[in-house]
Design a protein that fits this description.
It is built from 14 helices and nine strands. It is α/β, with parallel strands linked by helices and about 300 residues long. The mean pLDDT is about 95.
């Protein structure tokens, strides 16, 4: 059995699956999530311990992993009242796998560092199925020694685990990646609507494009859900919008344009405005159809 004790904060769509892989690997595991009773049910199913606060989790852990929605929640569970910092033991490493942007990661890291706790930012790419089978891509920013220490743990959750640089740089790589994905998903939606309007069989269009220079993971993964208007949530449209906005903020700070991400932000804003924020981001087809004044059949 692995020697290090792990704490896990957040048991949502992604976190519950990621934590399950940690438990399956034999790590002693304590968990917490904000929904009353959920941690207890999850712990009973997976052979873990449920605790009432992040501080209680940290008090029983050598490494604390957090996977929550945004920077506000990360700050709350790590440095807020009853947060992990209150229960931190000497040598604790916090690994935040949420997507919160580079500036927020560095600020939280500084607050933890003043108390002798290290932070690695380790956001992931890959939706719920990859979280379930442990094949996420994990991009890590932070201290090299701390990274080597937690790499075996991260490899229970991810197929590709890469240290990309200093604290916050994992966040930067993540939001660039997601913005590219979002921009491509918008292009896929527009191509499907155009093909349909021109009378093209969309099965044929998809087959040809996937064999040519227009092939993409977004067409492979989201083309059929878009055509079927099936928005079963793997990655929420509202979360994708958050990531794209974070990327555009980074681009603004760097003084470089990212116009395709700006377009994706506008389409996702319209998607969320149509009531699809909690749906999978394949729902952005609704906005594209709205712009075109037609609906895929």
């Amino acid at each position: 059995m692995p020697a290090e004790r792990i704490g896990f904060l957040g048991l949502g769509i992604m976190g519950s699956r990621m934590a399950a892989n940690i438990a399956a690997a034999g790590y002693p595991l304590a968990v917490w999530t904000h929904t009353p009773g959920k941690a207890e049910r999850w712990a009973a199913e997976h052979g873990a311990e449920a605790r009432d606060t992040p501080a209680e989790v940290a008090a029983r852990s050598d490494v604390v992993v957090s996977m929550v929605v945004d920077g506000e929640q990360v700050a709350s569970v790590l440095t807020g009242e009853d947060g992990a910092l209150e229960g931190a033991q000497e040598g604790l490493v916090c690994v935040d796998m949420s997507t919160i942007g580079a500036e927020r990661a560095r600020a939280i890291g500084a607050a933890l560092g003043r108390k002798g706790v290290q932070l690695l930012d380790a956001p992931v790419t890959g939706s719920a199925p990859r979280a379930e089978d442990g094949t996420l891509t994990i991009m890590v920013g932070g201290d090299a020694q701390a990274f080597e220490r937690v790499k075996p743990l991260l490899e229970t959750m991810g197929k590709l685990v890469v240290r990309v640089g200093g604290l916050g740089q994992g966040q930067t790589v993540k939001v660039i990646n997601n913005s590219l994905g979002a921009a491509n998903a918008v292009a896929v939606a527009e191509a499907l609507v155009l093909g349909d309007a021109a009378g093209i069989d969309l099965d044929v269009l998809t087959e040809v494009v996937m064999a040519g220079s227009g092939a993409s993971m977004q067409l492979e993964l989201k083309g059929r859900p878009m055509r079927d208007h099936d928005y079963t949530t793997l990655f929420k449209a509202a979360h994708m919008l958050k990531d794209v906005r974070l990327c555009l903020e980074e681009a603004q700070r760097a003084g470089v344009p990212f116009s395709s991400a700006g377009r994706a932000r506008d389409v996702l804003t319209a998607t969320v405005g149509r009531g699809h924020g909690d749906d999978d981001y394949a729902a952005l087809i609704e906005a594209i159809e709205g712009f075109a004044g037609r609906r895929l059949k």
